Amino acid sequence: MRIVQLSDIHLSSNNIYDLENYYLEALVKDLLAFHQHNSVDLVIFTGDLVDKGGNSLKESPYETFKKVIITPIVSALKITDSQVLMIPGNHDIDRNQIELKSEFYLANTLTRDGANKLVNEMKMSFTEDNNRIKRFKEFEKEFHKNTPNYVYSNSESSVIINTIEGDIGISLVNDSWRCSSDLQRQNHFIGSNQLFNTAKIFSEAKTQLNVAVFHHPLEAINEDEKEEIENILKSKNFSFSLFGHSQRDCKMNSV
């Protein structure tokens, strides 16, 4: 299986023209060259699809992202939407939906255990704590409504990819639900149970290989929770992880 990782596009009204008319054409050309040599099976966007919540793109920033970025790639490679995966980044947060009283409470009281409790409570509902990620997650849910073996939640999502060599489990971690412009590392808890939740699905499906996808590097997460996540990745047999947040060239992975 060959995976293309793309990250931190930060689509906005300021860069959409250049992306459409210059960079995307070059990207698609490179992807086609890779694809003809060894087929691309998955494209994974590891967060920050849009810039600052996509507010400069008006009412439907992710539909705009789909039209401008996803559709040309899918069309050129002759793959399906089901072969495009995504997770939110801190710029996918709608800052207008951050409730100040809730944010003050979370910044001063949230713990590792508290984050795990919230993650489970928010899996199928939106509250004042996670409304900031609602626009992204609703787009994801609609985008993958017909994707086989896709398990959606407002927290983590997961998908199992069937290959000739065996099934591959991909854990799509939502490590940005807690983000705000003032968030400090010591207050950045993501809810490590997201990994346990997906690992259970993979165990029941007897996947041959598991991949964890994050936006933030673990160094950007609370130190205690970082250690917990590292232990889970090892103990639950995640073969490797993908991270976004750092602006670098597109990455190709074969598994």
Automatic annotation (TrEMBL):
The keyword Transferase does not apply. The keyword Iron applies. Keywords: Hydrolase, Iron, Metal-binding. InterPro entries: Calcineurin-like_PHP, CNP_phosphodiesterase-III, Metallo-depent_PP-like. One of its GO terms (molecular function) is 3',5'-cyclic-AMP phosphodiesterase activity. Residues 1-246 form the Calcineurin-like phosphoesterase domain. Pfam families: Metallophos. Gene3D superfamilies: 3.60.21.10. Its EC number is 3.1.4.53. PANTHER family: CYCLIC NUCLEOTIDE PHOSPHODIESTERASE CBUA0032-RELATED, PHOSPHOHYDROLASE. Belongs to the cyclic nucleotide phosphodiesterase class-III family. This is 3',5'-cyclic adenosine monophosphate phosphodiesterase CpdA. It comes from Dyadobacter helix.
